Amino acid sequence: xxxxxxxxxxxxxxxxxxxxxxxxxxxxxxxxxxxxxxxxxxxxxxxxxxxxxxxxxxxxxxxxxxxxxxxxxxxxxxxxxxxxxxxxxxxxxxxxxxxxxxxxxxxxxxxxxxxxxxxxxxxxxxxxxxxxxxxxxxxxxxxxxxxxxxxxxxxxxxxxxxxxxxxxxxxxxxxxxxxxxxxxxxxxxxxxxxxxxxxxxxxxxxxxxxxxxxxxxxxxxxxxxxxxxxxxxxxxxxxxxxxxxxxxxxxxxxxxxxxxxxxxxxxxxxxxxxxxxxxxxxxxxxxxxxxxxxxxxxxxxxxxxxxxxxxxxxxxxxxxxxxxxxxxxxxxxxxxxxxxxx
Length: 342
Ligand code: NAD
Ligand code: TYD
Prior knowledge:
Blueprint lengths: L1 E5 L4 H13 L4 E6 L19 E5 L5 H7 L5 E4 L6 H6 L2 H20 L5 E6 L23 H20 L3 E6 L1 E3 L8 H11 L3 E4 L5 E6 H14 L5 E4 L3 E4 H12 L6 E4 L14 H7 L7 H14 L1 H9 L2 H14 L2 E2 L2
Parallel strand pairs: 1-2, 1-4, 2-3, 4-5, 5-6, 6-10, 7-9, 8-12
Antiparallel strand pairs: 9-11, 12-13
Helix pairs in contact: 1-7, 4-5, 6-8, 6-10
């Protein structure tokens, strides 16, 4: 099996590449990644001497490159994306290019190359937001609220259209919020951990009452592999974790795990259009793929904190680069208006 992974130098992609090479000893992986701010070859340094792995520096919008790479590929797993809601609020341009145009370009190239399987890694954010009750199933209407979510929903619909129009053998997975090793520290869990370890203020949007449904990246990767091997073409599979938590309770758990003080918490002005709650019903994936999440939340959080503790250089390289500028533009005004915890 020869698999083209896109976005394999990012957080979930890097976990997936390593997971698949370990789980499937006769599979080969070609990793196509543009190395944007979120792509980091340090995430895959352990594979430098691995003969079943090859990295290609390139863009999913580059049709000529895709036409060269796809012949002989048995499956595409498409992670490459702009992935952060807050950045999409600052400027959505790159989200439309990579997430929408890039997905269609990859679909077209895979159809021409007659690639036998194409899995699109989508997100629960395409469904929009929930109140305190209920869960999203695969037949819930798509109602994305942020530019990020809208660009993923557009791509998700293009994948659906490729099946209905061209009978292209595509599948879609929609996962809930991931956490684990290699996550870029703009996202909430690694942002809280790195700030707690450095004794820096922790920005909590609004009152910290928004709820997320967390899944460990390893469980997400296992779900993607199960869908790739056993999923039905044209189908969508929700991959949700078992754990739902409001943001403030999550911060408190992470502060306990890092040994940092609650005095670091700052309540800052809310994200515009902040989705209140996500929750996924993954009954279909459990029943039809035989998948379920295995990592217990406390154990997963503990392991994630340890990973960030043990990789200060990885964190320092990111925090020394363009991230510093992004952090200023996203948080300087907010932190100036912050309230501390009572
Ligand atoms: P990430 O931002 O950490 O990584 C994205 C990767 O894509 C990077 O390596 C980047 O260099 C690469 N990339 C970006 N634009 C590219 C382009 N034009 N061509 C080639 N490569 C490009 O993202 P992540 O958190 O690992 O998410 C991966 C996928 O999973 C995304 O599609 C995201 O929408 C989806 N997803 C993420 C979560 C989550 O909680 N992080 C949840 C559900 C779904
Ligand atoms: P995030 O990791 O950006 O994922 P998403 O918005 O895609 O679910 O944020 C997770 C939750 O944490 C979300 O409710 C927003 C909140 N949040 C903060 O309170 N402060 C922050 O600095 C960030 C980045 C997120």
